[in-house]
Amino acid sequence: MKSGALNNTSSTLPQKNKAEYKPKGVAFAPTYDCPARCDHCNIPFDTIPPGLRLPIDTALRILDEAKEVGIHSFQIAGGEPTLYEDFMVEVIAHGKKLSMKAHRPPTNCYIAKDTSRMRRFFSRLADIGFAAGFRISCDRFHKAIAPELIADFIINSSDFFKLDRFSIGCCDINEARSIERLGEVVSHMNENGFRATLHSNKLETEHGTIKIGFWAPTRPTWKNVPDDEFIFRSVDPCLSAVKSFEKTAPISRFGCLGPEGVGYLWIEPDGSVRACCGNANIFIDELKIGNAAHENIKDILKKAMMNEMLSALASGGPIELAEMSGFDLDAGCKYTHRCELCFDVFRKAEKNIKPDEKKL
């Protein structure tokens, strides 16, 4: 292995570093359309063709092929997935027929701007037996999403689903600001006769308890966002296999794409498949492993398992990838997330790779 080069065509790692790339499930990003345009979002909205959507029939075939190779769960992300209602309903219904688990989809509740449309959507989901709930985003980055919309989304959804399956995520380095915004949501609920009480880690309502989580935003490396919006973490190559996502926990040698990792087959609107947890899905093109629009999932996985970059990530995450590429980790360098370190390794390696070495 040449210093600084990431040769991803075949597996040549020493046996002690061998690890199996094994996706936990399929993550569909059927559209990257989103009205929130959060500053901390990884999606490069300005470079993605507007309105691009993954065909529903392609997604149904992907689920069939994923099931055949032993993948038993999926999730629908985005963008804002509720902007593509037909996709969500038909894909979730098909997954249910295949006995595949549908994870809670994220939403910023923008659909609540149209109450009739929202309730029709909820009714369609309830009719196909959807019971996973939603992961609701509630933070100040959602400039286009008023707290009242989140409250209306929860109030209306309680007529169709158990709120105990719901969760609310708040992304901010300042939890006090998140709590203040959550307080606005609760106030609107109570003003509309929907009894709700906010606690430190949950939102109690008359129709169930919603879990609340707080985390610091990750920094999109390709954006010029002030450092004071983020919490930075050090890198500790000697810390082994610690799956920690605490705000200030060091980035450790964690096999992110291995059997115990967080990797998914991330399917984009054009059918591109990336081997990633989703956090860095947009800005690391080297993790693109195929295109499900014209390739079988089985064939894509077969190629991926011969990919030494993925083997390194499955074994020790971006720390092992850095060591494989011949770059010394700077003890003083800090990142907001392990995916930011991964991006940095790839970009540094790119400067040392000849054009014919970049292809799969």
Question: How many DSSP E strands?
Answer: 14
Rounded to an integer in angstroms, the radius of gyration calculated over CA atoms is 21 Å
Strand order, largest beta sheet: 3-2-1-12-13-14
Compute the separation of the termini in Å: 16 Å
Series of H and E elements:
EHEHEEHEHEHEEEEEEEEHHH
- Strand-residue proportion: 15-25%
| Uncertain stretches | 1-16, 353-360
* Biggest sheet features: 6 strands, mixed
Count of helical segments?
8
Essential attributes:
disordered N terminus, six-stranded mixed β-sheet, disordered C terminus, alpha/beta, about 30% helix
Structure in words:
This protein is 29% helix and 16% strand. It has eight helices and 14 strands. The strands form three sheets. A six-stranded mixed sheet has the order 3-2-1-12-13-14, with helices on one face. A hairpin with a 4-residue loop joins strand 12 and strand 13. Mean pLDDT is 86; it is low at 1-16 and 353-360.
